[in-house]
Amino acid sequence: MVDTAIMPRNAGHPSRRRRALAGLCAALALAACQTPPAVPRTASGEQTMPPTRQEDQVFLALIRGMNDKGQSQAALAFLDDYLGRNPNDIEGLTLRGDALLRTGQIDAAEAVYVDLDKRRVQPAAAFGLGQVRAKVNDWAGASAQFARAAQAAPTDTRILNNYGFALLKLQQYPKAYDVLARATQLSPDSQQIKTNFVIAALNSGHEREAQAVIAAMPAAERDKTLSFARSWKP
């Protein structure tokens, strides 16, 4: 899913907006070499001053970056602090579910996504529940949840690709073809999506469409993709 930074309320003026963006970019660059700073506390453990909403957004952006870099255990530690201050924050809870999934804590992740589902937080809840089912090879359950997520976000190619792959695992090739054709059109540069589309196309009587996608690939990828797609087994 696409992540966007929330601008502070007083950032509407161009110069202020540029300064806000510059500060956020600097913070994200700094995250490459250090972890997010802890919230200031006194010796007794009391927080000295609550962070602003803008600071919280930077904090969440850094945590998201840690997840993306495979530092999900550290991300969980910082999320414990953040959610201790903001227990109902939807973005924080969503990041926690993702971090739990990435660290193999499937039951805990499922509990987070079930809670989000009760709050009708879509597509995050359904997509997360789909990932949980996929982790335990329940592809029917995964497909049902990804379908819900795709209904809530019909142009999200990450969701569409996961939904299409679940359908491939269920050998529902014509349906997978339709889903992955849409994903390929929306994200034509994604090699993973194109590979899944070729698998669906070859198994649903769309040889010409598969060959057209392969022909548009870099030469180094064509034979490898076709060979993989022809030998793929659910």
From TrEMBL:
<dbReference type="Pfam" id="PF14559">
    <property type="entry name" value="TPR_19"/>
</dbReference>
<dbReference type="InterPro" id="IPR051685">
    <property type="entry name" value="Ycf3/AcsC/BcsC/TPR_MFPF"/>
</dbReference>
<feature type="repeat" description="TPR">
    <location>
        <begin position="157"/>
        <end position="190"/>
    </location>
</feature>
<keyword id="KW-0802">TPR repeat</keyword>
<dbReference type="InterPro" id="IPR019734">
    <property type="entry name" value="TPR_rpt"/>
</dbReference>
<protein>
    <submittedName>
        <fullName>Uncharacterized protein</fullName>
    </submittedName>
</protein>
<keyword id="KW-0677">Repeat</keyword>
<dbReference type="InterPro" id="IPR011990">
    <property type="entry name" value="TPR-like_helical_dom_sf"/>
</dbReference>
<dbReference type="Pfam" id="PF13432">
    <property type="entry name" value="TPR_16"/>
</dbReference>
